[in-house]
Amino acid sequence: MSARAGKKFENLVPTPMDMSLGTIVGMLREQFKRDPHRQPAKPIQVVPLTLSETPAPHGIQVTWFGHSAFLLELEGRRLLFDPMFSDSPSPVPSLFGSKRYSGILPLAPEAFPRLDAIILSHDHFDHLDKASIRKLMGKTERFVVPLGVRDRLIRWGVEPGRVTEHGWWDELELAGLRLACAPARHFSGRGLFDRNGSLWCSWILIGAENRVFFSGDSGYAPHFKEIGERFGPFDLTMMECGQYDARWANIHMMPEETVQAHLDVRGGLLIPVHWAAFTLGYHAWDDPVERAVLAARAQGVRIATPRIGETVDARADDYPQSAWWREARN
């Protein structure tokens, strides 16, 4: 279980952030600075997605929707993670958070077939979106969330019996799969007064023959090695890579740390996520993937770089490796 002080959750290791007055002023100055490299010069092209009524009965197929939203087909089960499908991840899009780079999605929420579950990593707006949940709630009978997030879904109209919430190292059975809620190094909250009132997490998914790890949002920390020792190796990892900054390096990994975390959990194929949909950091929009690819090659890590909407067979020798993002550069 995660540490909890009073009604607030805590990280396993101290996680300070530089939020001094000078830092805040500097961030506001950067927020309104016009930098053409912080978003693509033209809309990102997506691969339209068509799904059959039933998923493939074997192996691992994963389709990324940009940022941290992805559909996982694992041994005949369909699981949707962090489905933020709205145009902007901010409650005040005119001030914070850009519009979606692609403009459109590979598949509209209303067009999804039946899902075995929707799984959430934490409650931030770029991972938990009210409009998306309401469009998708009729597609599944099961929502799996970290502690403290269940009540929010119920307020949005999800029936209480369809939502289970879990703490770190909790394990559960889901449609013949074994899931474990695991630590991450981050924080939670959607307003001024609910910071760390709910838990943030990573997820482990184990089938009869395949294992998948999703990092959620996380700074680099020892929990990755512990996860690898307890549950690895993994055939596929979906690892946070993007929206980083030296001022909040404790809660978001630098791309080189993304690759190291993949090695720590004993991952096979790496797909970097948490980029290519919105501008939430101050780096160039495609810097995360460029740096991650360089680091992966230097470390001998297999890294896939699918287009948004492109399905990856994680067990195949042939996986996407093109630098497609360069087509949309300034």
From TrEMBL:
Alphabetical list of SMART domains matching this protein: Lactamase_B
SUPFAM superfamilies recorded: Metallo-hydrolase/oxidoreductase (SSF56281)
Pfam families (UniProt xref): Lactamase_B_2 (PF12706)
Regions that span the bilayer: none
Catalytic reactions of this protein: 3',5'-cyclic UMP + H2O = UMP + H(+); 3',5'-cyclic CMP + H2O = CMP + H(+)
Top-level taxon of origin: Bacteria
Alphabetical list of InterPro entries matching this protein: Metallo-B-lactamas (IPR001279), NAPE-PLD (IPR024884), RibonucZ/Hydroxyglut_hydro (IPR036866)
A GO molecular-function descriptor: zinc ion binding
Metallo-beta-lactamase domain span: 66-262
One GO CC annotation: cytoplasm
Function field: Counteracts the endogenous Pycsar antiviral defense system. Phosphodiesterase that enables metal-dependent hydrolysis of host cyclic nucleotide Pycsar defense signals such as cCMP and cUMP.
Name assigned to this protein: Metallo-beta-lactamase domain-containing protein
